[in-house]
Write a structure and sequence with these properties.
Blueprint: E1 6-12, H1 18-35, E2 39-45, H2 48-56, H3 64-73, E3 78-83, H4 90-101, E4 108-111, H5 119-132, E5 139-145, H6 154-165, E6 171-175, H7 182-191, E7 196-201, H8 208-214, H9 222-228, E8 232-235, H10 244-259
Parallel strand pairs: 1-2, 1-3, 3-4, 5-6, 5-7, 7-8
Length: 261
Amino acid sequence: MHKTKTAVLAVSFGTTVPEAIKANIATLEASLGRALTDCTVFRAFTSSFIRKALAKKGAAVPSTEEALASIREAGFRKVLVVPTHVLAGSEFEKVAASCHKFAYDFDELRMAKPLLSDFEDHRRALEAVSAEIPRKQGEALVLMGHGTSHPVDIAYAALNFEAIQMGMDDVYVATVEGYPSIQQTIERLQRDCFTRVCLAPFMLVAGNHAQNDMAGDGPDSWKSLCEGAGFDVRCIMRGLGEYEQIRSIYVDHALKALEDR
């Protein structure tokens, strides 16, 4: 038996940007460590591309299954897996499948919910980010979600509707790979008569998507597309892991997973 009762495995998609790991993933892991008493926190990344890239730099991070095997060998009998994904999409399902493989290797193996698991999570997340980014006169806040071909992608449309219901008429959510797109969002911004746009990631880390797809100088970046449409644009390079109230949602899900017996 290990000296601490429970191993907490924080599983992220991952990023190759060291600053983003430190500011977002490590910060969230630290919040989990403070909130979950008598636990040891471990890290895993689900992206094989990112793991290979980090390994070449001498900064290897295990997969979910590799981490669970190490935790088992270290003598832990109870494990709480905390996926740091935004939605219960394909990457989340990969984590669930890995946990299923190890279900009988521990006395107890639990899995927490992702960031957005119900409408209350949606509202808390929107309030957390909106409150931390004051807007200028005539400026809209456009949050960059990843988007997915998974059916859970509909959550981004729900976020837009909830923002309106909450009176956040200047908050929009668009996606890189799902619905709604930035082009569809630009059309909404024009109809709503905004002249300025503040772009910010709605992803755990401000990694390559934020640096290139959102704030890059290329012709297809969100910054360039918004400027081409006549908007005055500024970018916030801050991942969700940097917001205390976002981290508190993850912590609440972890505590709830431990409480459910």
